[in-house]
Amino acid sequence: MSYSTSLPAGYTALITGASAGLGAEFARQMAPEAGTLVLVARRLERLDVLKEELTLTNPKLRVYTFVHDLNDPAAVEALIAELKTKEIAVDFLVNNAGLGDLGTFETSEWSRVQSMLRVNIEALTALTHALLPGMIQRKSGAVLNVASTAGFLPLPTFAVYAATKAYVNSFTEALAIEVRPHGVTITALCPGPVATEFGDVATRANSGRKFGPVKALYVSAEQVVREALRGVKKGKVRVIPGFQVRWAALLLLETVPTPVKRLCLNLASRINAKPQG
Ligand SMILES: NC(=O)c1ccc[n+]([C@@H]2O[C@H](COP(=O)([O-])OP(=O)(O)OC[C@H]3O[C@@H](n4cnc5c(N)ncnc54)[C@H](OP(=O)(O)O)[C@@H]3O)[C@@H](O)[C@H]2O)c1
């Protein structure tokens, strides 16, 4: 389903998790058309290097680098306050920051689980809550929530991550309908595997488990972002980048009955339980 979207020329965009992977690629692809980019992450040096690169190739672009740990609710509030103080009206919010944790729930560290809940869900919801009213008032704007195809299925050994992304998918679909009359769009981006730092961050030290999705399902960060931005411009509610991922998702979601999905997940989890490499 798609609705019309309207981003003003030279829009102001805020990208969370801009220091690496998809977030940095969003900044690169948005830089030629945006007026202002607000880049948020914890690693300032990475953001500064990116800022230099972007302003070199786009001299008219204004770039802010804000360091905030989205795992800390007070830091999320501080980010929202900073936007107000600096009178930055965000037209395009890209809720991209996120992390996973690969391994059984029983053996997970609570701090890691909490980080996923806070960054993947709470910060995304808080930023949307803070910035959406301004967009509705101006009758234009877009929110892009980076979910995952992992949000389509309960995933043993990735249980909390998949559940956080299921939240993002559900939240986005519902909100898209709420904001439809106001000239604002909300899109869930659901990539399959992408070669970024995500896999390393999700891998626990000494666990013997490796992040290793089927190679044929990998889509480049450039393509994921290109398709995402095209989807936002078309006002799409959900974007699944990559032909092969789209078909795999469609096949799995629309044609496989739940008991068969459970059986497959059980088998996969037994295979994965064997220590690897
Ligand atoms: N790569 C994949 O296979 C894949 C597939 C589907 C969906 N996704 C989703 O895509 C999004 C981007 O991930 P990626 O693949 O680009 O991973 P990545 O390379 O690990 O980048 C993650 C970004 O999130 C930021 N971040 C993490 N924790 C943060 C925190 N507490 N506060 C502020 N920023 C934080 C990181 O910045 P700092 O470390 O500098 O803070 C980094 O810029 C995530 O939501 C992920 O779930 C990824």
Structure description:
This protein is α/β, with parallel strands linked by helices. It has one domain (12-273): Rossmann fold (3-Layer(aba) Sandwich). Helices cover 48% and strands 13% of the residues. The protein contains nine helices and seven strands, in the order βαβαβαβαβαβααβαα. The protein has helices at 21-30, 44-57, 73-85, 110-138, 159-179, 198-202, 221-233, 243-255, 258-273, and strands at 12-16, 36-41, 62-67, 92-95, 141-146, 184-189, 238-239. A seven-stranded parallel β-sheet has the order 3-2-1-4-5-6-7, sandwiched between helices. Helix 1 crosses helix 7 (221-233). The protein is globular and about 55 Å long. The relative contact order is 0.14. The mean pLDDT is 93. The structure holds NADP nicotinamide-adenine-dinucleotide phosphate. NADP nicotinamide-adenine-dinucleotide phosphate binds at residues 17-23, 41-43, 46, 69-71, 96-99, 119, 146, 148, 191, 193-194, 196-198, 201.
